[in-house]
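Assemble and predict.
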Amino acid sequence: MENLWELYKRGEWEIPFLIFSIYLFVSASFIFYLIIVASRNRNIKREKLRLEYNILIEKVLSSIIFEDVLYAEIKNDKNFMVLFDTSFFREVLTETLINLHKNYEGVYAQKLEQFYKDSGLIKDSFKKLKSFNWEIKCKGITELAEFNINEAFDQIIACAKARNKTLKITAINAGIKLEGTKGITHLTEHADIIDEWTQVNIISAFKKHDIGDTKGVELLLESQNTTVVSLGLKLIKELKLTQKVPFVAELSTKAPNTIIKYEAQSVLQALTL
Amino acid sequence: MTFFNTDITWFLDVYILLILGYAILIMSSYLILAYLSQKELRGYLKKNSFVDYEVLLTSEFAPKLSLIAPAYNEGFTIEENVKSLLSLNYNNYQVIVVNDGSKDNSMEILIKTYNLVLTDLDIHPKIETKKIKGIYTSRNAAFKKLIVVDKENGGKADALNVGLNIAQNPYVVCIDVDCILDKDSLLKLAKPFLESQGKRIIATGGVVRIANQCVIKNGRLVEVNIPDVMLPRIQVLEYLRAFLLGRMAWGRLDGLLLISGAFGAFDKEIAVLSGGYSTKTVGEDMELIVRMRRYMLENKLPYAVSYIPDPLCWTEAPEDFKIFKKQRSRWMRGTIETLSFHKKMFLNPKYKLLGMLSVPYWTLFEFLAPGIEFIGLVITVIFIVFGLLNWHFFFLLLLFVYSFAVFFSVIALFSEERTYHKYPKQTDFIKLLMAAFIEPIYFHPLTVYSALIGYKEKIMGTKGWGEMTRKGFTKK
């Protein structure tokens, strides 16, 4: 340090500074280059593994769906169980399981749900809910909601109160899938702004999961949070809930502001014409 | 004599300090911006992996968009380009093609292909433009989204203003008609308009990438390749640096001064209230953003400009130096004009981050940089002629700048690798890496030269774009 100061005082710092910087840039470039190469190789390796795993996974899952094989029998396959202990294999297995579950209904879907529970993948998902990392939480929520694990509802709704918007949307959507309107009634107490993107997602979740029982949607109109009221109005309009017209009419007479009043009148017009 | 020598030594010392100071300042700013970009990019990608854009497709609450595509002598590709605009993944949108007095058969092709007829559209122009010859819509219900405007030639800004006057939706998306858009580009561009929390989103922009040698099928990009020709290849790297390491950070700081004219969405009301596109500059895209921001700040309206790092738009880069020079000199003229129109903002605290950081940054590192480099070159030549040059120091300085340039390009490649990974082929990666080594000695001098031509043109009072010839994309 003293040497550096001496160099600076003597006005001879430029050359050592340039040499040091050149070394720094060259070595940093080389390190970044190595990281890029390593990352590309890792990706290639993972893709190869994914392909290999997919072959095995598809074989196992098709035997479960079409040949009524139980998880207890699959457990006897040592090769499968060795792979099952690796996190990447379980990740690929869960992804494939989710994709298949999205494409099947009825008995086939139930068999996949049973496999999800028996294999212990469900425990992984619950573990993910406890993570401090919001993305991992989102993954866990998506998995549990996909396989209709209603016991997870309370934990999922707790996540819906998070400040992180992505986590909030994922949790609300999952809540709607699992318990319908029960998944959004907590929003009446919500203090933060629910932006239009979140609102559009909530409406879409109702349509996607074909929620028939809409009891409780009208509670949103009573919220002190105007964005929640706006969400309620949009839901009533999009889902054409004519039975909620009296609540909308009441709101239009005592709306907290002109925007809500206008929105309520527009919903009334759309539903009564 | 001793006095003279002392003077020279003093001048040399100051000169060296200034050069080093400027280099260190520019390099540090690049690194800080790269760091911020990386942080923002990673955050965006994490969030985006849980986003379902399809919800916008089925929602009546999706923002209503009007696409404005000005066209001048695009007869060769206009049929296919309009078709691809009409087949984007979005519901609430209309396409307004503005034929800016083309001298070719663009209008005839459009009328024939889309079965167009003159229509009597009720418009109330808020921005003054050149005369409209006719407004056309299609007889075919399949093209009901399409409006074609035939007008007198008035330049790109004038054509865009006609689009702003005609647009029926609250948001306008201004695009270059010859750009290849990602199928979901409108979904991604529209989302930020729904995310405003107390701040009005006045504009959103996405990343533009180079499409030379990429394979296009039915107006969509199906295969990404790195060009064999060095000039566009280096531009791929340049765009990666600019968009992934620069604009992303400015977006995070909310100090973005430019949304590419090739693809950007605007709040129509604010764009019109700000006066629309300026026909007095060739940098109308940058000028509009600066003016819209200025309007919001002067009226004390809370606002934000959003930036999306996804590669949404692919464009053709110039392959020969003549066209490249025209493009870059025009960019420089546009920068000079915008900065001079809004010189009031320079270091003016009233304009917050924009006035205190964005505008000074652009002035110092975008507008003045080529001039400073040129002056440095002239002084170096003088030193050589008078035998004053310290060769050891000179080569070290060159190596210092060169190694940083390569290092920064490698960071851009690293960023691309860890995020979008659009160039998975080994050969493409090697091509880009080679380009990083060649760029400082081949491409950079060309950009400086073109920028100096831009200075000259500005001084000489050159106006307009000049003819820009395009080679066209590889089709499958």
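The two ends of chain B are 74 Å apart (CA to CA).
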